[in-house]
Input
Amino acid sequence: MPELTTALRGPQPGIYRKLCGCWVIDNLGEVALVTREMERLGFRDIVAEPMQARVTPSVFHVPWVTLKFLLTDLLFGNRKMTRARWNNLLAPILLPFVGFPIGPMAYYILTATRS
Output
């Protein structure tokens, strides 16, 4: 994660670590590393198209979905809140603090041709 980590600033490295911990992953993928690996595997004409404009509107629903979850599942639900469920609740709240436009994390559509 060298490129992403150096681009994080202030509290973002801690937020990023917590986000990865919530999803039980070591790191998020880095587009440069993924495209290099695609080239190594024989893909050509690789295009990494940023798709922030398509993703950003869906981020605005997170507070409402979180509130609904808290009210229906936590307060009135019958299921126990496990660590995994808490993490699934927390990760989408943390994501905007390391993602575009605040941080360096971004979403891409990758297209390529297999040789």
Observations:
- The chain has one domain: 2-106.
- Residues 62-75 form the longest helix (14 residues).
- The two ends are 28 Å apart (CA to CA).
- Residues 2-106 form one domain.
